Structure formats: C-alpha cells, structure tokens
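Sample A.
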Amino acid sequence: MIWLVVLLFVLILLRVPIAFGLGFVSVIGIMLTNPDLLINVPRRLFSGVNNFTLVAVPLFVLAGEIMTRGGISKRLIDFSKTLVGPLPGGLAMVVVLASLFFSALTGTAIAAAAAIGGMMIPAMTKEGYDVRFSSSLVATAATIGPIIPPSIVLILYGVIASVSIGDLFVAGIIPGLAMGVGLMIYSYFVGKKNNYRSADRRATFKEIAVGAKDAVLALIMPIIIIGGIVSGIFTATESGVIAVLYALIISLFVYREIKIKDLWPILMNTAKTSSTIIFLIGFASLFIWFLSFNQIPNQLIDLMGPVAQNPILLLLVINVILLIAGTFIDTISAVSIFTPLFLPLVLVAGIDPIHFGIVMAVNLTIGMVTPPLGVCLFVTASIAKIKVPKMFKYLIPQIAILIVILLIITYMPQVILFPVELMQ
C-alpha cells in the first residue's frame, strides 16, 4: 500500500490541494482494501477536528491579525532600530530583531514577512542597501515565526503526535533565538563589507528606555503566554484566548491603531485562514487512520531496514526528505502528511517526539524560503518588486546558516530538551 503515498505526492506535484489529495488517497485506499469501512470516513473527518486543543489555531490566527493591524509591528521596529540601528548592517539587524519580537507575538512567517517587509525593505533601499539582500533577509528572518512560540505549526504537530504543546513551545525558544543570532551575525558582516551604516552614534540609555517604554506592552505578551503555560495557570489552548484579549486591549485602547469597525475584516481573514487549516486537519486525520489501519508505517520500517534502527541515519534521511518536500509543500500541509508517516519510525529508534517536532518545524520552515514554492520569498519579492532568482546571491548563505542550526539541533537534542526538563 506504500504506492498510495507515492500517489499522494504525484497529486501534490499536479497542484491538487493538499486536503483533497489526502482525502482522495485515503478513500481510494479504503475502497481497494475494505469498502465496508467507507462508512467511517465522515466519522473520522469529524473526530479529527473535534479536539479542544485545535481551538488555539483560530485564536492565534486572530491574535496575529489584530497585532499586525494594531501598530505593534511599527513599535517593535522602532525599538529594534534604537538597539542595533547604528551598528554595521544595523537596519538588516533590525529586520532580524523585529522578526524575533514579531514572531513571538503572531507565530506565523507570512505575517512577519508582510508586516516587516512592507516597512523595512523601502527603508533599507533608501539607506543604500542592496534590495536583493534586504528582500532575501526579510524572508529568511520571517521563518523564525513558526519556531518561536506561540506557533500554529507546533500546535498542529502536538495534536497529531499527542505530545505536550507547552513542552513544544518551550523547546522552540532556543532554536528560534539561534536562527535570529545566526542571521544577525551574517547581517553584521555584510554591513561591514558594504559599509551599510545608518547612524554615527549609538543610542543613549535614555533613548533605549523611551523605545522600550513604547514597545514594552508588545514585548511582555509572549512572557505572559509562556509563563502562564509553564506555571500551569492556563493551558496552551487557553493562552490563545489571553493572546486575543491582550491584543484587543492594546490595539483598541492603548495604541488606538484600530477601531471597532476594523474588527469585521480582521474576523473575516481569520475565518478564511482558520477554515483552511481545520479543513486540512480533518482530512489529515482520515489519512492518519488509513495509514495506521493498513500498518503502512510498519511497512516503511521494514523497507528502510537498518536505517530505521539507527537514530543518526534515520534523522539524516528524514531531514533530506523534509528539506526536499519543504520546497514545494507548505509547512502546515507537510506536518499533516509527514508526522503520521515518520513518527512511528522515530519512536522505534528511541528519538524523543518533542525533539523530533522541533527538528521537523525548523526543517520545514527552511522550505518557506526555498524555491520553487518559497512562499515568503514571493511575499518579499512582491514588496521589493524584483524577481525571486535575483535574491539567490544573498539567499544561499542565509539558508546555509539555517541548515547549520538544523544540524546542531538534530544531533544535539539536549540543546532544545534541556529547557523542557528544567521547566518540569
């Protein structure tokens, strides 16, 4: 029955929507093996989305929409300029730092690429930065979004793999920070080489304090979310409610960047995005049940032979597969497809599922800046008004940095598991 998995990827290459591809393959497989089980299809679709934890998905999408329109991104960028703006490559470092802050609020790469790119790419062009460098950097920095908590990708993986979303959130902090630091170091050297400098003096303590005052309300939100989850005050799902409430209060009554009338388009965008994700999860649940019923993961274990028993080789093979798949499958869809396929192999090899979840998330986010799909590349290319291939000169070393970090967290699991163990 492994040929059905191959059929799924053929459908994906033919641009069939992922959800329909999962449903089609599952139904065909059931018809060929046991047509009487077709009666279970509606039940499996419903049970797949009948999960309280999934309430967090539309909540965090809504919180992200409110924050994007609520003036929070502008204040984060201004504060980042105060911190690192005068350094060589300062504005480039601002992009990365602002992405770190913004990602910790929204958890989505596309939102970060659009919000920060819309402000920073024109500003960097005005300061003499190569538009190829600035647009590629905004895209790669945005990939931190699905890693730094809160993260919709990690929520989805946690639901499918039945592991603690709170632990996944904590485990994602160090990889996300490492990605940010790596890109900032690269930006510093590019800035030094090309003499990219935005100011002649560093900000005074007073200027930093003023900038922090404007941004502090945005910056403490991830602290509230992570702190509440770790301390047990609320669950990861309930933290979504806190995020929405906090974003509404700050955007409506403190920053006053949005009005009540602006909430309707925000809610509509949230509904469109969330319904797509939930629809996909329903068909992914059917696909997972089909795989388990036909013992396809066991067939994969037998097919891979000694590789499936060796954690080092297994992780290497999985990383290569995910890096290739991430170039043409979006992150959420890839998590839905590959988690049920690879998780049984990972567990047999004795790999921690929390560790594997972070490896998968980092791996697939690299795909968001890897052609041909590279959705973040197309977002920033449209803002910069250039063709995606023009970014490659600067994009390749940036992707190389992310892959080095991927290899470190793949083969040094304690780097990401230590904070989880510390919090327990």
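Sample B.
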Amino acid sequence: MTRASEKKEFPLSMRLPEADIAIIDRAARLRGRSRTDFVRDAAVRAAEEALMDRAPIRMNAEDFAAFMAAVAAPASPVPEMVEIMRRPAPWDAGGRDS
C-alpha cells in the first residue's frame, strides 16, 4: 500500500454505562446510523461548537459600528414569523387567540 492511499484513522475507546449505550443506540437507530457514526458525528459537532465559542470575531471599526447599530436598533416584526405564530398549534385543537 502506498503512503498516499493509507487511511488516516485512529481508534477511540470509551467505557460507558449501559444506560448511556442504550440511549445512544436508540438515537442512532432513529437516525438510521450505526453507533460509531452517530457518536463520531455528535463528538465532532460538539468539538466544533466548543472551538467556535472561543473563536474571535474580527472586523474593522466601520463594520463594528454597523453591527452595533443593527443590534441596538428596535426590533421589527418578520411577517412570516407573525403568520406562523398565529397558526394553531398542532396539539391545540382550539387554536390560539389572534
């Protein structure tokens, strides 16, 4: 096997309580995934979130002023959201008062 075609995968082993395995397996089945795929995706997603929480956001003074103005501006309704909120909830047979 040439160096270019070698897989770059590394094993990861964990000891988990039976209850944790049961809930992971149930969720993986619901998603149609293997336990390994489900856990790998969840772990990578959690790692990316943790890294993004710590990533600095850089912008120049003009862009920062525009950002602050947008954040400080009064909220305005989004017509699509207003319409959605007026719909009756699926579990509420009577609907909401408009």
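B remarks: The chain is about 55% helix and 0% strand. Residues 14-86 form one domain.
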